[in-house]
Design a protein that fits this description.
four-stranded antiparallel sheet; globular; 382 residues
Length: 382
């Protein structure tokens, strides 16, 4: 793939920027933060033991699952990477759409390509970048691009990111994008179950990605039908009754989309690792200390002991005076306990946490200070 050709050019016209931004505001945030977190966290469980270092970064990948969305707010060049309007390319259904980004731009022109989005090309460019980074053993940047790969793959499994009818505006389902990917998943995300599978090598990654797009695109129709059905049941109101019926009619389909997204992410990551000649991935027990997504210092220490039962020690250092919040969260990002909230001054803080009232499992310790957030995974072994 021609990674450099996905960069923004200086003559990107204002009218096109405005158009893409209008599309982006209503359509780019696929699955919301909740869905992206679930997919990035669960997918790495499918990797083989030789890639244990990726499994240990599950909470980092989860925390930074929506970093690509945050970039798009300040960088319009990021926007077209999040959608792909298949209807704009009639040769897609014939299997003759160029899989080379250079060829696509040569055929349709830069403006038309950006207007239609180029999500599958962004997936492949990120995949190619990961191969190169793993070959160079640049692990800090590897984990950053791994989070991005998971994000783009998740976007590609949201059917309304693959159609010109991205918000139901062509079928009188206006607002369906937000209702389906954000409201519905926020309400029922805890019921989504992503089964663990075994990652497989993909012989032709580009064909694998492009072939999958058409199948996902076709699922927009039953979701639109379920939306109208749920609204009738709820007597024309987007109420709790509407979302309960909407979930009843789309639960199986949505679970399948999450499962398939998780599988594609794991398969592509595994295949990239194999293509890079299976480099040794550093683990937390070795000399690599993950600062995967930021050069800024980390102030929240790993709880000790970890795993623990039922008491563990929590420590963190503040670089200044802040309003601080320390909490315990479950796998779905829901806060279970608030350990501390209030103002604290510069210094190091320690306290014990007794989890005797919690069931065994995986939890997340989160420190928030100022506009910064840090997270550590905790394993309660009972």
């Amino acid at each position: 793939m021609e990674n450099e050709n996905l960069n923004c050019r200086s003559y990107y016209r204002f009218a096109l920027i405005f158009f893409l931004w209008c599309v982006f505001v209503s359509s780019v945030f696929a699955w919301g933060n909740q869905g992206h977190r679930i997919l990035n966290r669960e997918s790495v469980k499918d990797l083989p033991d030789a890639m244990q270092g990726f499994k240990e970064k599950d909470f980092y990948l989860s925390d930074y699952a929506s970093e690509a969305d945050r970039r798009a707010v300040a960088d319009e060049c990021e926007i077209p990477k999040h959608f792909f309007e298949i209807e704009r390319y009639p040769e897609y259904s014939e299997g003759t759409l160029p899989q080379s980004f250079i060829s696509l731009e040569e055929k349709y022109g830069e403006s038309a390509v950006k207007a239609a989005g180029y999500l599958p090309y962004a997936i492949m460019a990120t995949y190619d970048t990961l191969v190169s980074l793993m070959q160079r053993k640049d692990w800090t940047t590897v984990f950053k691009f791994t989070a991005d790969l998971g994000h783009y793959v998740a976007d590609a499994h949201q059917p309304f990111h693959l159609t010109s009818n991205y918000d139901g505006q062509l079928t009188r389902n206006n607002g369906i994008h937000w209702r389906y990917e954000k409201e519905l998943v926020d309400r029922y995300g805890a019921a989504l179950h992503v089964s663990q599978v075994t990652a497989k090598k993909i012989e032709k990654p580009a064909e694998y990605v492009f072939d999958r797009m058409g199948k996902i695109h076709a699922l927009a129709a039953p979701i639109l039908k379920a939306d109208k059905s749920a609204l009738r049941v709820a007597k024309g109101k987007y109420s709790g009754a509407y979302y309960a019926q909407f979930w009843k009619e789309t639960r199986e389909l949505t679970t399948t989309l999450f499962q398939d997204a998780s599988m594609m992410f794991a398969n592509l990551l595994y295949t990239a690792w194999l293509k890079a000649e299976s480099p040794k991935v550093p683990t937390l027990m070795e000399d690599y200390k993950p600062q995967a997504f930021s050069s800024e210092p980390q102030y929240l220490e790993q709880n000790f002991p970890n795993p623990f039962n039922p008491v563990t020690r929590i420590s963190y250092t503040l670089p200044g005076d802040y309003y601080v919040s320390v909490g315990i969260f479950n796998l779905f990002g829901q806060e279970l306990l608030k350990l501390f909230t209030g103002h604290q001054s510069t210094g190091r803080y320690e306290f014990e946490f007794d989890a005797k009232n919690l069931p065994g499992g995986v939890y997340f310790l989160r420190l928030q200070y100022g506009n910064k957030t840090e997270t550590r995974k905790m394993i309660l072994s009972k």
